[in-house]
What does this fold into?
Amino acid sequence: MDTAPDVLAGYRPPSQLVQDKVVDHLDRHCRAFIALSPFATLATAAPDGWPDVSPRGGDPGFARVLDERTLALPDRQGNNRVDSLRNTVGNPRAALLFFVPGFEETLKVFGTTTLVGQADLGVDLTEFGRPPRSVLVLTVERAYFQCGKAVMRSGLWDADRQVERSTFPSLGEVLRDHCGLSTPLPGQEEMRAELAQEL
It folds into this structure.
């Protein structure tokens, strides 16, 4: 049953302002927003079309704007799955969604990528005392600011809506169940302390 055309027909056309807000480079507003952002999500897709989205974060400005059409995204210590990086080798298209704590607007940046070593880039991207393991260089094709409705609805930055960590099992318990392990893994605080040493 293909109801997608009928469902999509129920949406009104986007306004001219919404259509015209897309730019083909990182202007001063985009650059300023990225300089304030400590967190982004990276969207990629494998050559066979399966999508992936991955969190990226660091100090504000961890993603470095090299010029108005070039953005460098350092890759830090992680779980070594490198799904996103493998995807970009086979399918270089990618998108980033930048967040700034306290801001309701977000910034979307789209482009094509090249994976390089920091030495190849000639820019020092050391953070937390470590150089990146690699750098994803995004050649910008489109960028635009997304309105704040989703963040407003979610109350993402509202301290009164933060969830107590104790209301959900520790990551160790989740991994034990998902991996079918019979022995317990470290508790939440112990696991967090271990992760903090690897930033």
